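The protein record filed here.
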Amino acid sequence: MIEITLLGTGSPMIDPNRAGPSTLVGSGDQIFLVDCGRGVLMRAAAVGVGAGNITALLLTHLHSDHITDLSDVITTRWVTTFAPTPLPIIGPPGTKAVVEATLAALAPDISYRIGHHADITEPPSIQVHEYTQGQVWDAGGVRITAAPTDHRPVEPTLAFRFDTSDASAVLAGDTVPCTSLDALASGADALVHTAIRADLVEQIPVQRLRDILDYHSSVEQAAATAARAGVGTLVLTHYVPPLVPGQEDQWRALAAKEFSGPVEIGNDLLRVTLPAAPRT
């Protein structure tokens, strides 16, 4: 079984009701955090997950909105675990440099805490693993595979596929349609895909904001990816513009133009369990 929880369904556009991009993927006693946007640990706390419970942190890419709370994840895990508990961080090339820079920024705080607490004698322990594709995890009945996506000029960027004995899920991250994502998602029970309302963004009279159209998938494009890959359920997240309550059916209608399966759209903390129960 795989349980997906959308911790943060927001984007760089501030929404008081949505945390930044972040998703929990749980199976058995393992809990994986994919991306760590603003407010991630507050949302995780709402479902009973603390920084110390995270098996590994996976980063789809290094855009600021997806790593805003990296320092919080590192620090909170460090000060709330009472035995050496290295945090595996899996991401694209460049992840190690970002982690090192984050630890450098935290250097004063780290020194304060080591000086204050007799039982804290070492800085946070982080194990960074950089990948561009291939298997990135295989333990405890969970296998995770990465594939490159297309979010240029941001590169490299990754999507992750989670496989267990009875379920599979793919988290696409930010991307336009690409064959590598189609292949990774082929036959998955669920595809979690970021999406923008191109019809609304096109009307924004600011070129900088309209620029996002060329490296994100529209709702229709995300749905077409789901259809090509033959996935069971499409889960939309990272809503741009922010999803206004009451507009969910508009988003579903756009997705239905390309994908005939179930489409999950909702607020932070939306939970999807796989394999899905049969519909009656």
Q: What stands out?
A: The chain has a mean pLDDT of 95.
